[in-house]
Amino acid sequence: MNILVINCGSSSLKFQLINSDTEAVLAKGLCERIGIDGRLVYQPAGKEKEITEAAMPTHKEAIQMVLDALMNAKTGVIKSLDEVGAVGHRVVHGGEKFASSTVITAEVMKAVEECNDLAPLHNPANIIGIEACKALMPNTPMVAVFDTAFHQTMPEEAYIYGIPYKYYEQYKVRRYGFHGTSHSFVSKRTAEYLGKPLESLKTIVCHLGNGSSICAVNGGKSVDTSMGLTPLEGVMMGTRSGNIDPAIMEFIAKKENLDIDAIMNILNKESGVYGVSGLSSDFRDLENAAEEGNAKAKLAREAFCYQVAKIVGGYAAAMNGVDAIVFTAGVGENDGIVRKEVCKYLGYLGVQYDEASSSVRGKEATLSTSDSKVKVLLIPTNEELAIARETLLLVTK
Question: Is 147 a catalytic residue?
C-alpha cells in the first residue's frame, strides 16, 4: 500500500509518499508560501528536485499540486489516486482526548477543533490540510497521528502544574508534551538497535533541533517530557525561551510597555539561542561565530548544552536510573560538539563518551565507549515513516 503523509503548517505543507511494504520513500516535497504566492518543491526518489512557482491561495490548491506532481506523466510515481491507499496526517495537539492515533471521522474532527485553543498556530492548519485532502480524495481513509498522544502515559504528578487545580479541571491546563511521534519512533528503534526488549529499557531521548524536547521513556512509555502545555516550555531552543521565571513576563512588560501578545512574540520568536547570541538560531552559525571569538554565540551554545544536561539528569532521577541516552533530530544528529558538551555533565551516571564519535553525522551509531555504564546513541528520527506505520496499522485493522 502507498501511504501519503501530510504535515501542514500555517503557510506550508510537507509531504512524503511511502510504500508501506518496503518502507521506501517514492517521492517527497514541500509547499511553501501558501496564501502568499506559492512554491512547490517536489523530488521523486532518485531524481532531481523540481521547483514550481504557482498560486496557492489555500492548502486545497497546495494539495492539488502535490497530487498532480505525484501523477505527472514524466516524473510522477503513481498513475492515479487509486494507488494511494491512505493518508496519514500529523496533528500537533490532541489534548487528553487522544492517547493514540485514530481514523479520522466527523467526531474526531470536532474533537481536534476543540483543541485549537491549546495549539492555535498548529491545529487549525492541520485541520485545513485534512479537509483539503478529504475534498480531493473523499474515498481514501485518513488517519490523524498526534504529537501529544505518546505522552498521555505520563503520571499525574509529572503533568500537573503548581497552579490552582481548577485550571486543569476547567481548561485542561497541564503538561502535554510534543515531538511524541519522534520520541516513540526513536525509543522503539533504540531497543531494536541494542537487541533488548523495549519493556526492559529506561531511555532518555534528546530530540534537539530548532525546536527541542527531551523525553523519559520507561518500558516504552513516556513518563515525563520537557515541553508542556505548549512547545514553548523546556530547554532554550532556536528562537524559543524555554523555561523562565514567569515573573519575567510582567517585569519586561512594565519596563517596555508591552502587552501579553508582544511578550509572547518575544518568548516564541526572539529568544532562545537567537536571543542570547543576538546572531542566529542556527547552531552552525553559532559554532562558526564562537570559533571566531564571539562570546555571546559561545554562551548560547554552552547554556543550551547545560540545560539539556540538567533535564537528562532529572529524568535519570525520575526513572531511578537510565540505560540509554539517545540524540536525534537536526542538532542531535549532526552537531558532535553539542553531544560531547552535554555528555561532559553526565559522568556521574557512568557515561563515558567516545571522543572519536563527535564526527558522526546523521546515521545510527554508538557514541559511548565499550566500558560506559550508560549507552549513548545517535538514532536518526523518521517521523514520516512513523506516521505511515501508524496509518497502515489502523486502516488495515
Answer: yes
